Amino acid sequence: MDNPQAAGSPVWDERHLRLGVTAAGVALWAWNVDTDRLTMDDIGHELWTVPMGTEVTFEDLSANIHPADRDRVRAAFSATRGIIGPYEIDFRIMVGDEVRWISARGRGDDEGIVGRVMYGVFLDVTGRKQAEEAHELLAGEMSHRVKNLITIAGALTSMTARSSGTKEEMARELSHRLTALGRAHDLVRPVPGQTENAALLGDLISVLLTPYDDLGAFSGRIRVSVPRMGIGEVAATNLALVLHELATNSVKHGALSADSGLLDVACLVERDEVVLVWTERGGPLVTPPAAGAGFGNRLLDRIMTRYFRGTVAYDWAPEGLVATLRINASNLAS
User: Fold this and answer.
1) Is the pLDDT confidence value at 196 over 60?
2) Is residue 257 a contact partner of residue 284, using CB atoms and an 8 Å limit?
3) Which of 4, 170, 195, 327 has fewest C-beta within 10 Å?
């Protein structure tokens, strides 16, 4: 006797399917290909922030699609009837100032069409997209950092060779600088579980810049003048990335690439804002960078605007770069 349902197994019906769909956060939609009318369930209306009972067309929904994705999504939906089998498209929608990622899935080529109506689902994939973006940023950052470390090691070797009298002295000084560079590199690597304040601001800058100073920080060609203030662990990691990027660019192209170059790092507090001024002098003639910032500059700008809620301004004076960093004081303590 044929019995598709094994004894003791749960019986699936429409109510169980609905419970499963709701638990998964899947929004159901139906699209009338003739009238362009879309019908969605409660999850779909909530996802698109469309009041229940509102008659919706694709054009209505497209107003919420991110402008950069709108034409692509329109073309994709128009092409679904010509696509054989399942299809999927990811795009962004705007919910106020918030950006969400949506994945639309269905079947094309009129497959399974019922009464001139096509069916599919919307999924909120914002979390997955944010994880992918974070992974891409991390991969780009690591590649950029490895290239910079190789360049810096070469620059420090040349710097040490010029100032050393013997090969033994050069080996000793180079080892000291590379060790200091390792300590500086540790500051730009987050430590899981570390919650206490990382350091004083002056100590942080000193450790970061020691490998580039012929006579040691505060006494050589690198001068640091900052008020005594603490800096939080997360803020220290982010500021270390910013200062490390500025130092890397300086040792490659700016004042720290020349024996006569000088670097002055000064800091002052203006009400609820910390202003850090990075001033280079005595290096090669400065020319503004070509249009289209590299990964390092994009990373620096991203940290300054997104984490510190601040700004960075560059003055590409011929005699040397002046970079002014403005940081919200509360963000520096976190």
Assistant:
1) no
2) yes
3) 4
